[in-house]
Amino acid sequence: MASCLQIADDEKGHDLDLFCVPRHYESDLDKVIIPHGLIMDRTERLARDIIQDMGGHHIVALCVLKGGYKFFADLLDYIKVLNHNSDKSVPLTVDFIRVKSYCNDKSTNSVKVIGGDELSNLSGKDIVETGRTMQTLLSLLSECNPKMVKVVSLLVKRTPRSSGYRPDYIGFEVPDAFLVGYALDYNEYFRDLSHICILNDQAKEKYKV
């Protein structure tokens, strides 16, 4: 099982006034649950693990938009640094796909794949995939006959709604709360928030569509 940093269910988080939070979001958030610096340090370690495991393979890094873009970019930056400064290195190309599975704060029963290049061009390649909604996408990828698929996810949520699926690389295991920030959104808001925070109930109504 992939190792990760666990955020306990009773974790109280950190007061907003201890961090730089955009003023227009201050009334919308309960707590900072994962500060940006901790995200970056954990992402650097994930990059090192990937290089260690995948060195020698040609990797197509597939970013799941939109929520995965910030993690994807930071992860690839760390991989590029390691490629330049370590004994192991990996040939790396990138691709993008958009997946939508949330309406307001509810995960829907359907997963929509929107835009992106044709998945058929991934045939025969090794893939490190970054994002949150996985199983439907994995079934689509399997039709393209990649040599190997590895999934990297910054967050895995402990929830009774989980199918039990676990990615190959995990940043943090988090409580069953609606989290925003670091490109994770609520109806497209909060992507510009650096830290990962707990959204309060008033904000759910305020930004509801």
Automatic annotation (TrEMBL):
Keywords, alphabetical: Cytoplasm, Glycosyltransferase, Magnesium, Metal-binding, Nucleotide-binding, Purine salvage, Transferase
Catalytic activity of the protein: IMP + diphosphate = hypoxanthine + 5-phospho-alpha-D-ribose 1-diphosphate; GMP + diphosphate = guanine + 5-phospho-alpha-D-ribose 1-diphosphate
Any one GO MF annotation of this record: nucleotide binding
GO biological-process terms attached to the record: GMP salvage; guanine salvage; hypoxanthine metabolic process; IMP salvage; purine ribonucleoside salvage
Cofactor: Mg(2+)
Pathway annotation from the record: Purine metabolism; IMP biosynthesis via salvage pathway; IMP from hypoxanthine: step 1/1
Family under the similarity heading: Belongs to the purine/pyrimidine phosphoribosyltransferase family.
Entry protein name: Hypoxanthine phosphoribosyltransferase
Species whose genome carries this gene: Poecilia mexicana
